[in-house]
Amino acid sequence: MAAVSKDATGAKKDDGASVKVVKDGPYLVCGGLPLAKDVIVADDDGSSVGWESKDEFPRRETYALCRCGRSKGAPFCDGTHAKVGFDGTETADHGKFNDRAEIIKGQDLSLSDDRSLCALARFCHNQKGNVWGLTEKSGDPTCKEEAIRQACNCPAGRMVEHDKRTGKPIEPELEPSIGLIEDPEKHVSGPIFLKGGVPLESSDGTLYEKRNRVTLCRCGASRNKPFCDGSHIGAGFDDGDDSLD
Ligand code: FES
């Protein structure tokens, strides 16, 4: 297996591991990245509150993950994209998160929020409040803790909390790996959760900004490809996982 190290931001990276977007085709995964299901856990009110990891797949050095949402061998590509004429044109901005994000300044925390990356995982609000209001009241330790928890649970990395005094981002420790999101509360399968700062290469050979948390569309319906934009919910995407039954 490739060695794990840390980059300058403290995010772990797996040297040699990468994901490449294939034009109108799948994601090519290299470097033996672990693959498992990540199920969103909801409370009695339907708010997303945590993750359950299950069904780890046997390790493979390289594999191709379906991007069109039509493979009969999901989560792996079976070539269906070519038969159905999948248009996987990448429409996402190649710029930096910090250049797109809106800043919400609170008492102890500062929140960066890039709505274009929202994957509708719904960790940003529950009975305790929403991440924006909790950030504003982050002088209160309880509000601060909950704001950090909500932002760090966002798989898309739409939201990043910062320590207002030092300016340092607050990120969860994530091993370089891939999760296949399932969302039983909405009865849908969700995006690919790419974790731990794994390089993501566009079909044109350029690199997207390396980030600790990224969600990649695997239903084929996103208008912000290769990233998820929450369209899988409206599309009723189901990869056949039995946790949705
Ligand atoms: S998986 Fe979320 S938009 Fe396709």
Question: What's the SSE blueprint?
Answer:
Blueprint: E1 4-6, E2 12-14, E3 18-21, E4 27-30, E5 35-42, E6 48-54, E7 62-65, H1 80-84, H2 97-100, E8 102-105, E9 109-113, E10 125-126, E11 129-130, H3 131-136, H4 141-153, E12 159-163, E13 169-170, E14 177-183, E15 188-195, E16 200-201, E17 213-216, H5 231-235
Parallel strand pairs: 3-16, 5-14
Antiparallel strand pairs: 1-2, 3-4, 4-7, 5-6, 8-9, 9-12, 10-11, 12-13, 14-15, 15-17
The chain binds FE2/S2 (inorganic) cluster.
The amount of beta strand, in percent, is 25-35%
Work out the radius of gyration. 18 Å
Helix-and-strand structural type: alpha+beta
* Overall geometry: globular
List of distinct ligands in this structure? FE2/S2 (inorganic) cluster
Q: Which terms would index this structure?
A:
17 strands, alpha+beta, 30% strand, 2 domains, 245 residues, binds FE2/S2 (inorganic) cluster, 13% helix, globular, five-stranded mixed sheet, four-stranded mixed sheet
Can you give a write-up of this model?
It is a single chain. The chain is built from 5 helices and 17 strands. The protein is 13% helix and 30% strand. The chain has 245 residues and is α+β, with helices and mostly antiparallel strands. It has a 5-stranded mixed beta sheet, with no helix packed on it. The site of FE2/S2 (inorganic) cluster has 13 residues, from strand 15 and helix 5.
